[in-house]
Amino acid sequence: MTPTHKMPDEAATRRHAAIAEVNNALCVARCSAQLAGMETREFVVRELLLTVLREIDRAAECVRRLR
Predict the structure, then answer these.
(1) What is the pLDDT of residues 8-32, one digit of tens each?
(2) CA 28 to the chain's CA centroid
(3) Could you tell me the pTM of the whole model?
(4) Which of 1, 13, 31, 34 lies at a C-alpha separation of 20 to 30 Å from 20?
């Protein structure tokens, strides 16, 4: 008779927790960059922050695909 419940894989659980932590850190970094962008009117600073936001979004998308 086979078991009706499969025990959770410890490695997979740790991996999912790490992915969630990285994703949360990227979300915090994105919010911080957005707030910084709202506080400045300098073109170069805003462009750099927009680049940071794009890269954070790209990294977050990669992390989401790992799930």
Answers:
(1) 788 888 888 999 999 999 999 999 9
(2) 8
(3) 0.74
(4) 34
